[in-house]
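hey
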């Protein structure tokens, strides 16, 4: 199939203006965004995205879990579509680019095709996946996981947030529960553009990351139970301090991750302490351990060592340790053909590039199990993400979307 000419580029100014316009919805307190999934702000962002897609001549479809699919028709009605996109939801203190660049970069692909009057044999679908972040409703990549058959729809509907609100109820409340069956779509290939969320590309001075693999992930929700009691009147040797258990397990997680270097990470993120009073020894702590590695053997070994050692460490100080998996996936290897298409596009366009492993989970990791999939990455300043100070340059955004454009259009096949 012919590749687009190297002179074909997206409109970088229009892309940047769209990113800044979307960032006005759900502003954070320090320059970023708080547009968590299934909030009123999420609904407003979705509505703006729908308007832009319809203005670009796309037909919008929505499935039963709220995934949005904007279709630009192809010339062959029997050809499976090429999908491109990411997510619009953010962390509570998120940045303006995580996920959003991939969705609006996909929209810019369509807009540029319209500008140039280019037709493709395969339809192109710009997708916004629901609840990629998993910060309000765990696990992350929830809707793409249902789409790929990893989770059941009813199970997803029953996920609850910290206030006890159900995912399914909130999806209906904001008006974005569609009628289309989840997963009832053919996919020729899927491409996702994303900021790196790490420091490698900037440190290496590269414009483009060609993502060959993703990291496997385990989110392990742990509960340490002791006995809450008065901090002033309870003798030290009689305490059953769940907070101390948390501290010891925190060090254990770090030790396990360091033992499995290189290419392994681990940390404790979300923590709830009960009763969370300044003069009460914690009687219970609930927290999530995040282990990741692109090497399945290392991922499994880290998980096994935690289960083997944590209960004994807690027992020694008079508290108990329990755990359950709240999110997981094995390390994905992206489709070699799609990866090569991205690499060749970067080369053709003259952008410096390198192969890279994604340190974060993405919707593409689930879709990779049901369709040929690959990812493009651009640098972000200091590798900072999931933070309101997350930043990229217009030039990085343009370069990543140029490569995305070429990969998508080549795969969708230009009609002469």
């Amino acid at each position: 199939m012919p590749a687009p000419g190297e002179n074909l580029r997206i409109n970088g100014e229009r892309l940047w203006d769209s990113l800044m316009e979307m960032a006005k919805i759900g502003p954070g307190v320090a320059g970023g965004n708080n547009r968590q999934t299934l909030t009123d702000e999420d609904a407003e962002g979705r509505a703006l995205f729908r308007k832009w897609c319809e203005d670009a001549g796309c037909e919008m479809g929505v499935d039963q879990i709220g995934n949005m699919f904007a279709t630009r028709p192809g010339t062959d009605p029997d050809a499976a579509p090429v999908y491109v996109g990411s997510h619009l939801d953010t962390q509570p203190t998120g940045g303006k680019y995580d996920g959003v660049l991939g969705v609006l970069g996909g929209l810019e692909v369509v807009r540029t095709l319209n500008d140039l009057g280019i037709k493709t044999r395969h339809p192109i679908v710009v997708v916004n996946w629901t609840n990629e972040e998993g910060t309000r409703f765990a696990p992350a990549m929830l809707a793409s996981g249902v789409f790929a058959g990893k989770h059941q729809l009813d199970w997803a509907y029953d996920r609850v947030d910290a206030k006890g609100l159900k995912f399914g109820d909130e999806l209906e409340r904001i008006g974005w529960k569609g009628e289309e069956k989840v997963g009832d779509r053919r996919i020729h290939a899927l491409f996702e553009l994303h900021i790196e969320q790490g420091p490698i590309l900037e440190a290496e001075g590269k414009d483009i990351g060609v993502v060959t693999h993703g990291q496997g992930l385990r989110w392990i929700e742990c509960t340490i139970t002791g006995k809450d009691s008065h901090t002033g009147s309870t003798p030290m040797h009689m305490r059953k301090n769940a907070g101390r258990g948390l501290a010891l397990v925190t060090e254990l997680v770090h030790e396990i991750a360091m033992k499995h270097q290189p290419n392994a990470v681990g940390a404790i993120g979300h923590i709830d302490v009960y009763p969370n009073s300044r003069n009460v020894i914690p009687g219970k702590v609930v927290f999530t351990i995040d282990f990741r590695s692109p090497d399945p053997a290392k991922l499994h070994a880290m998980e096994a060592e935690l289960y083997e050692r944590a209960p004994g460490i807690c027992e020694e100080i008079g508290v108990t340790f329990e755990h359950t998996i709240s999110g997981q996936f094995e390390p994905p290897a992206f489709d070699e053909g799609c990866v090569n298409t991205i690499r060749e596009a970067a080369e053709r366009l003259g952008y410096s590039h390198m192969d890279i492993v994604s340190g974060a989970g993405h919707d593409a990791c689930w879709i990779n199990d049901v369709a040929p999939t690959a990812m493009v990455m651009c640098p972000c300043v200091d590798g900072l993400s999931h933070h309101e100070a997350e930043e990229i340059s217009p030039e990085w955004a343009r370069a990543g979307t140029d490569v995305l454009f070429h990969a998508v259009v080549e795969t969708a096949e230009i009609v002469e």
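The first strand starts at residue 59 and ends at 62. The radius of gyration is 23 Å.
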